[in-house]
Amino acid sequence: MEKYFYPAIFHDDKSGGFWISFPDFPECLTQGENMDDAYKMAVEAIGLCIDERLKNNEKLPKASTPVDYIVESSDFSCLIEFDLTDYRKKHNSKSVKKTLSIPEWLNEAAMKQNINFSQVLQEALMNKIGI
Asked: Which CATH class is domain 3-91?
């Protein structure tokens, strides 16, 4: 599992809800109608930024600490936990065709039992990498 922890600043939106910024990702902003919604949106937003930077082979910033930035009196800071593996499972689940070779006898035995080769391979790979 690849987990990341970055602070977010929840700003009180005078019209209701919150808007969220991230000191370490200036390009990352989001909002939510209430605390629960705002936190979920913060996880999604930081996930998009982290995933995009990693796909572009960009280095991720070191997480700042609460004393590294100033928070207004109506705002507060919250640490956001992001699980890259879970995010990619949710957002990058398109199938990729793979060609593989197995002995003919094994193929015949598996086909007689109506075994789904794709499912077996996926389960074996997840087991192998510890997911």
From this structure: alpha beta
